[in-house]
Amino acid sequence: MTTILQKKICLLGDFSVGKTSLIERYVYDRFSGRYLSTIGVKISRKSIELNPDTTVNMLIWDLAGSEEFSGVQASYLQGAKGAILVCDLTRPETLNSLKKYHSQLNAVSPNIPIIMVGNKEDLTESIQLTKAQIHEQAMLLNVTYELTTSAKTGKGVEEAFYELARRLD
Amino acid sequence: MSIFNKKSEGQAIQQEASSTHQVDDALLHAVRSILVGQEREQLEALDRKFQIWQREISASEEATQIRFSNIISEIQALKESAEKTNYQTQSNASALRGLERNNSNAEEELAERLTPMMAGLIKKTLQDAPQDMAETLGPLIGLALRQQVRTQKKDIVDTLYPVIGETITKAVSEAINELIRNLDRRMRKRSPAERITAQLQGISAGELFFRDTLPYQIEYVFIIHRHSGLLLAQTSTNRELRDDLDLISGMLTAIRDFAQDSLGEGGELNEIKYGEQLILLQTSQDIYVAAVLSGTIPQGYNALLRLVVSEINVKYEQVFRDFDGNMDNIPSLENDLRPLLYPYDILKPTEISSKQKKTVFTILVALLLLLSFFIFSCIFTIRLWPYAFPQATPTATYIPTQTPMPTLTFTLEPTITENPTDTPFPTQTLRPDQGVAVGNVNIRSGPGIENPVLDILYEGERFIILDQDNGWLYLRREVANKPNIEGWVNSLWIDHK
Ligand SMILES: Nc1nc2c(ncn2[C@@H]2O[C@H](COP(=O)(O)OP(=O)(O)O)[C@@H](O)[C@H]2O)c(=O)[nH]1
Ligand SMILES: [Mg+2]
What we know:
heterodimer; A: alpha/beta; Rossmann fold; 6-stranded mixed sheet; 4 helices; B: alpha+beta; 5-stranded antiparallel sheet; 11 helices; binds guanosine-5'-diphosphate; binds magnesium ion
C-alpha cells in the first residue's frame, strides 16, 4: 500500500518575479504571457511519486507579497513543510527581498527545507544577477538548494519542485 | 440525252414499221413535216419548255442547296452563339456567385473588424454619456420590445422564463432565508423557559412547522487540519468523493485566516455562501469541519456541527496534534461524520410534535393559574393590610412598645363614671356621641384608607363622634395634653354606643 503524504509548500518572492508562472508551468505545463498578478493566495496541487511506496501530494500555496506589504500574511505560512523562494534574475532587488520572506517563514515554520530559485533565465539580454550572487544569498539564508529557472521555457522548473519534494519528510 | 430525242427515236421506229425502208430522207422529212409537222413543233416547244424547267429546277435546286447550306450555317452560327451565351451565362453565374461570396466575406470581415470598435465605442458612449445613450436607445428598444412581445409572445416567454424563473427563485429563497434567520434568532434561546418566551413573542407553531419542512441537501462534509489547512477526511451523501476538496480545504483555511487576521481574533468565519450552496464551518481546537449544503440549513445543524467536531477532536486529539501530512496516521472518520450527513434523525423538529405542544400548553396553563393566584393574593393583601395592620401605613409613626391588638372584644373602663376633668380617661358614662379606642388606629383626613393619616388615636383615648359615613366615623379626640384633633377613623377600632 502506498503511503500518501500531504504537504503544504509555499512560494514566496516579490511581486511579478514569476511565482504564479512557475506553478502554472509545473502543475499544468503551460505558460501564459498574460500578466495575472496574484491577489492573496492561490492553491494548486501536484502529486509526485517519490518511490513506489510513497506519493507526495503537494499543496502549493502561491502567496502574493510586495514591497508595500511587509511580506505575506503570516497565517498563510502556518503548517508549511517546505518553501521555494523566488527572485527575478533581471531585478537584483528581488534577490535582496528574499531575506525578508525567509525570516517570516522562519518565525512561523522553522527548519523546513527551502529551495531558492532565480527565475526568467530566458531573458538573457537583461539578466542582472549572477549565479555567484544567488549562491551567496543562498548560503547566507542557509538555503538547501538553489538553481535558475525559466517558467517560459520550463527549464529547471520540474527540478526545483522535485528537489523540494524529496526533502519533505 | 433529252426526252425529245427519245421520242423521235420512237417515232422513227413507228415510221419504219409503217413505211418502206431506204426512202429518200428529204422526202421523208417532207412527209414527216406534213404528217407530224404540227406535233413536232409542239414537241419542240415542249422540249424547250422542259429544258427551261430543267434549268429552272436545277437552278432552284442550287438555290435551295445554297439556301439550305445557308440555313445550316445560320443554325450552326446560332448554335455557336447559343453555346457562347450559355457559357457566358454560366460564367456570369459563377462570377455572381463569387461576387456573392466575396460580398458575404467582406461583410463578415467588416463585421469582425467593426465589432470590437463598435463595442468600444458603445462602451465609451455608455460611460461618457449614459443618459444620452439611454435617451437615444430607450424609445427604440421599447418599441422593439413591444413589437416583439406582440408578435412573438411565446418565444419571448420561453426565452425569458428561465431567467425570470431563476430571479424569482433567488428572491424567494432569499426572503425565506431572511425569515429563517429571523426565526432562528428568536429561537436561539435553549432553555425551555426561553423557548416558551419565544413562543410568547409570537413564533407560531405554523412558522416552526414551516421552518422544519424547508428542504435541504447536505452534499459534503469534510474535516480540515486547522494548522495546515490540509484535508483529513471527507464524506458525502452521494458517495462520490470530490478530488478537489483538498484545494477547497486550503482555500477555506486561507479565507478563514484572512478574515480572522483582518477582522480580529474575536471573530470566526462560520458561513460562506456560493450561489445556491452554503459552506458552514465549525472550529474546534485542532480541526474544523466544513459542510457544503444547498437549501435551508436544518434547524440546530450548526450546533450539531459544533458537537460532532469537538467530539472528533477530543477522540483523536493526539493524532491531530502529531499530524505531519502522513495520511496513514489518520483514522477513518466516516462513522463519526455520519450524523452530519443525515441530521434528520437527530434534529427531530421538537417544537411541532403534539406532545411538545401539549407540554407547552400545560406549562402555559399552569403559569396562568399561578399568575392569577399571585394577582389575587396581591389584591387581597393590599385590600386587607390597613385593616390588619393600620399603623404600618407609610406615614404612620410606628411605636414598637405599643403592640396593636386587633381584638374586637369591647372592654369598658370601670372608671368611666369618674370625673372627666381630673383624669385623662373618661370618667363619665359614654354619651351616644362619645367613644373610646379599643386599639391604636389612624386618624385620617377622609373616610377611606387612601386618605392621609393625620395622627394616631391610641387605645383608651376618648373622642366625640361628629359624623359617620359607611363604617367610618368623623370624630374629635378629646384628651388632656393633646391637641383636639378632628378626623376620620374606621369604626372597627373604636367603641361607642
Ligand atoms: N520571459 C519570462 N517571463 C516570465 C517568466 N516567469 C514569469 N514571467 C512573466 O513575468 C510576469 C509576472 O509573472 P507572475 O507569475 O505573475 O509573477 P508573480 O507575481 O510572482 O506571481 C508575467 O508577465 C509572466 O509572463 C520567465 O521565466 N520568463
Ligand atoms: Mg502571482
